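Supplementary Methods S3. Complex input for the zinc ion-bound model.
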Amino acid sequence: MVNNILAAFDERVDSLAWMTPQTKAKAREKAKSMRVSVGYPERWRDYAKLEVRADDALGNRLRAELHEYRHQLGKLGQPVDSGEWWMTPQTVNAVQLPLQNAMNFPAAILDKPFFDPEADPAANYGSIGAVIGHEISHGFDDTGAEFDAQGRLANWWTSSDTQHFQEATKKLAAQYSAYEPLPGLHVNGKQTSGENIADVSGLTIAYMAYRKSLGDKPAPVIDGLSGDQRFFLAYAQTWRGKIRDAALRQRLLTDGHAPAAQRAQTVRNIDAWYDAWGAKPGEQLYLAPAERIKIW
Ligand SMILES: [Zn+2]
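Predicted complex, serialized as structure tokens:
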């Protein structure tokens, strides 16, 4: 799936009308050399020196902090390990690492509802596929775009492409800033910009990869739903959750991610979602084609 979605990203970049061939070539080179790690690291980290005691939660925490601090200090003067993991395999999450041009997909996210080897591909592409697409796209969000294929801080953009990218990014920020999850409190489109870019682009390329995975065969209808409907439904279902108003308020002010309900609404920017579910002008989630933001 990761390779299929990387291939979809490559195809997507190639087809962008606004981007110059020079910037495209750099973006494709970066995507091609992105290091993908799935499940767990190739080399396990040594925790032998970390003392864990069953009756000392605070002490464990303090010793773990110190252990981590020493691990980071120990890197001074050493070559960069681009295969280093930044999440444990037991973490339900995934991450893109601009300095390593790498991605970690821990084993714990490769489970239901994100991934089920028995599930219909539309559901897997709509859930873990969108996560994979999201992490790939982080390599090209407002931060990732500042790092090159080797993980160095470098500007590989032509100035006209930078300008277009920044304008599209601004429009997407305005779209999210219009959301008002709590009375009087809006999503901060600028604070959540990188995540929102990754959501829109990630869902776009996961959908492309899903369509491609079908080959020439039409998707089966399951439970009365088409393949495209199941893809977008699975995406929405990964965002189910409950949150208290106080926690939501705190996250709106501090989190780099938009709340789950607004992340589920990423679909508003995807043309195929309109075809799948038939959203019409005047409906709450409808955006006119010109207002749908496409960055990558
Ligand atoms: Zn992210």
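The chain is about 45% helix and 5% strand. The beta strands are 35-39, 95-97, 102-106.
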